[in-house]
Design a protein that fits this description.
This protein has 13 helices and four strands. The strands form two sheets. Strands 1-4 form a two-stranded antiparallel ribbon. A two-stranded antiparallel sheet has the order 2-3. Strand 2 and strand 3 form a beta hairpin. It has a domain of 198 residues. Helix 2 crosses helix 11. By secondary structure, it is mainly alpha-helical. The longest helix has 27 residues.
Length: 311
């Protein structure tokens, strides 16, 4: 049993190493320092969103609204800067907005007894529509107000490393600590392992579910801030399909879709696999259409392996 657990945890890492070695054989540019940093910077946004998604999936849920929360948070951030709201206050307000959206979604699921897939699909649709209405379908520039300070979050460097990578590492570190060393983390695993047993044990399952969707919304808003800073504008169509990338990173990283089993480090590995695959296909000038096919195949393989390990 222990050997199966270890093998399950190492499977994503082995896949990452094999993928990196194979790509380096086809493209000498892949292992250059500049390209590796570029991969990590591109991966950072998906990794941040996938971290929140991990909390949700560990409870046996799903969150399809993360891409729409990213877009909505981004346009609100740009709008606040345009009205000369201080940078720190703007960031706090946007993060609070993301968490609040997650809370509302969680309450719809727990109090309204709506399935997570349906509840988050509704949130995704409503927020995407609200973003398009708010912007009239046009980008909002983020070069007003404290533009230089804001640009650091997405475009800046520290010790030669892009700032988004530091944010990604910080988010992953906090999430790792919460899941491994706090009572809330144990409750998340317990809820995903057996919700009825968790409820009979006295856990406030509705509160825990609502909290994980709040975490997902908070981190989606964080990703929205990073992306808006990186592009110096908020695109109303930003984040389209990001929910699939986040789910893919979580599943490829070894987190079970049925809940109760998974690790944050696995999610990081999954996000890196998705990021490296995208980067490699771009280096080899492969059409984006084929990239979607490759991503679908990887997700399918990960799900099949997940089901096999549960059998």
């Amino acid at each position: 049993m222990a050997n199966r657990v270890i093998a399950g945890r190492l499977r994503p890492v082995i896949g990452l190493v094999i993928l990196a070695v194979a790509i380096s054989c086809f493209s000498p540019r892949f292992l250059t320092t500049g390209n590796i940093l570029n991969v990590l910077r591109q991966t950072s946004i998906n990794a941040v969103i996938a971290t929140g998604m991990t909390f949700v999936i560990l409870t046996g849920g799903i969150d399809l609204s993360v891409g729409s929360i990213l877009a909505y948070s981004g346009v609100i951030m740009a709008a606040l800067l345009a009205t000369q709201v201080p940078l720190f206050a703007s960031i706090v307000l946007v993060l609070a907005l993301g968490a609040a959206i997650g809370v509302v979604t969680g309450l719809v699921i727990t109090k309204g007894k709506v399935q997570p897939f349906i509840a988050t699909f509704v949130s995704m649709t409503l927020l995407r529509g609200a973003t398009l209405v708010f912007t009239d379908g046009k980008p909002i520039s983020a070069d007003a107000g404290p533009a230089e300070q804001f640009a650091v979050l997405g475009q800046g460097y520290g010790f030669g490393v892009p700032v988004p990578i530091f944010i990604m590492v910080g988010v992953l570190g906090v999430a790792y600590y919460v899941l491994r060393h706090t009572r809330f983390g144990r409750y998340v695993y317990a809820l995903g392992g057996n919700e009825e047993a968790a409820r009979l044990s006295g856990l406030r399952t509705g509160l825990i579910k609502t909290a994980v969707y709040a975490v997902s919304g908070l981190l989606s808003a964080t990703a929205g801030i990073i992306l808006t800073s990186r592009l110096s504008s908020a695109q109303p169509t930003a984040g389209a399909g990001y929910e699939l990338d986040a789910i893919a990173a979580v599943v490829v990283g070894g987190t079970s879709l049925s809940g109760g089993s998974g690790r944050i480090l696995g999610t990081l590995v999954g996000a890196l696999i998705i990021g490296i695959l995208n980067n490699a296909l771009n280096l080899m000038n492969v059409s984006s259409y084929y990239q979607m096919i490759a991503k679908g195949v990887i997700i399918l393989i990960a799900v099949l392996l997940d089901r096999k390990s549960e059998a």
